[in-house]
Design goal:
single chain; 103 residues; mainly alpha; 4 helices; 0% strand; S100-A14
Amino acid sequence: MPQYSELENAIQTLVSQFYGSSKDNSPTLKVDEFKGMLSSQLPNLAKGFGSEQGLSKAMQLMGVGDGEGISFQNFWNLIQDLAKKQHCLTSPGRGTLCKCVVL
């Protein structure tokens, strides 16, 4: 059995937590399932998504329309945005305009 790096384990955790949050084993999450996952798994990075306005912004960032389920690709869009913001906050020279791109 291979030894996985911390990064590989983190990616596996993202995937398993996303799909594990679906109560009916659907490939998409309902809004309440998504909110539950955010509050339990990303409480510090997603603090601003607790309000309806914050949740609406998260849905916009992910490219999810009203009434649509949240796919893993939608979730990954949010992770990219959060990762970029986290990098900009913790990298040397913070306070300057961060132009990094997370693909």
